[in-house]
Amino acid sequence: MTTDSGLRAKARRHLGPHFTRKDVWQDAELPVFVRSEGCHLYDDQGRRFLDGLAGLFCVNIGHGRSDIVAAASKQMETLPYSTNWGAAHPPSIEAASLIAELAPGDLGVTFFVNSGSEAVETAIKFARQYHKSQGNPERTKIISRQMAYHGVTLGALSVTGLPKIRDPFLPLLPGVRHVPNTFGHTGDCGPAAELDCVRAIEQAILEEGPETVAAVFAEPVQNGRGALVPPDGYWRELRRICDRYGVLLVADEVICSFGRLGHWFGSGYFGVVPDMVTFAKGATSGYAPLGGMIAREQLVQELFDSPKGGTFTHGATWGGHPVSTAVAVANIKAMRDEDVLGNVRTLGPELRAGLEEIKNRHRVVKDVRGMGFFYAIELMADRETDRELSAEQSTEILRAVLPAAFKKTGVILRPDDRGATMIMVSPPLVADRAVLDELLAGIDVMVGDVQRSVSA
Fold first, then answer.
1. DSSP conformational letter for 193
2. Which of 9, 75, 262, 305 could bond to 344 as cystine, CB 3.0-4.6 Å?
């Protein structure tokens, strides 16, 4: 068996890291996880950690589910691979049918891909080809929101509104306009149509020329800038604006779908039927790679029936892979039959209450935002004196204080610097009160360490 030092040496030399600084990748204590069960991970030293981020917002059903493993194994034995190009197979058909049952309104056709970024790429391409098939080839522009993350492929990255991850790859896809997000607006803020964050979207469409705009992209609860829950009526206004100007509305639900907010789809919770929904992560609870774009049936029919359409000119070798879609079926059915979403709706308010108690105990907590099992804790130097963190304090917290606290508490969360200094919280959706108590106890220690670091 490879020794501990051997594993890390091989990782440093041969394994390309994702979104990881060199000093972290070269650290002698680089985490190497070897086993998981329920809501916990175990490293190669036998240490136990609470997975407070559900992997990357994805292990919704929890780790170590033998039923999901069995579904994958059975599919590998039966039909390990078959394409969805000019053919179909039972697991992709069943997965697409299940998703159609759960999605809002007439969102009934799923194009499977492999990741959230590819799902967004699919929506971009569908929007462009749909408009072209309907005789509007000039409709190519996209409106999205500042600080929003929509993926890393060049098209999805163009729609992303985070300068730090866009800048190394400029220039990107032309014709993307970023408008203000909903930061600072939540709950009842008055008529949604009068809010600046809503008026900015309509204004951008008018300035670009409605006849040139293909789609508006938005997450039901925006991840970038820290779990931004929209104000009342916001999504209904997005639907009204898009309908008025013939623009397609895309709900990016890579995080928000399959229970993260306590509902199958966040857009459905907020009372609208978008033209497309993108998903990934929770569809398989991370047990296999799978993403997808769900489109309204009428739009698909119109594209395929058009003389300028006939085919959605897009696809991927692994799109709708039999094993991945079999895993999705097993995962979705288990979540449905075990009322996992009900668990989130029941315990989500308790999780929020616990986070609010931590805020009240520590003056370094500026805000707690989110819903369901998806929260952000925004940090500052001192709430009582309204003192923000300096750049040096923020760097120290994100790169030293919080990583050390994760190790000390055995609770893994995500330090986040997208627009503020934050801790992202996203436990598996099967977490019970005991797990949430463990999570909250760990967060309390972390925040206490942050407070001591800025007070020193």
1. G
2. 262
Which segment of 64-73, 263-272, 303-312 scores lowest on mean pLDDT?
303-312
What is the chain's mean pLDDT, rounded? 97
Name the E strands within 146-279.
176-179, 213-218, 248-252, 276-279
Three-state SS string over 158-175 comes to HHCCCHHHHHHHCCCCCC
DSSP character for 399? Answer: I
Q: What is the pLDDT of residues 312-349, one digit of tens each?
A: 999 999 999 999 999 999 999 999 999 999 999 999 99
pTM of the model: 0.97
Residues 158 and 212: their CA atoms lie apart, in Å, by 17
Out of 22-26, 38-42, 154-158, 247-251, pick the least confident.
22-26
What strands, in cross-sheet order, belong to the sheet with 48-51?
A: 33-37, 40-43, 48-51, 411-412
Q: Reduced to 3 states, what is the DSSP secondary structure of residue 338? A: coil
Tokens (6 digits) for 201: 């979207």
Q: Which of 407, 376, 160, 372 is nearest to 260 (CA)?
A: 372
Is the pLDDT assigned to residue 439 strictly greater than 90?
yes
From start to end of 332-455, where are the E strands? 365-371, 374-379, 411-412, 414-416, 422-425
- CA–CA distance from 359 to each of 165, 185, 291, 354 (Å)? 30, 20, 36, 9
**DSSP assignment of 108-122, as one string?**
EEEEEESSHHHHHHH
> Would strands 422-425 and 248-252 be described as parallel, antiparallel, or unpaired?
unpaired
Residue 428 makes CB contacts below 8 A (sequence gap 6+) with 38, 39, 51, 54, 59, 60, 61, 62, 63, 373, 435
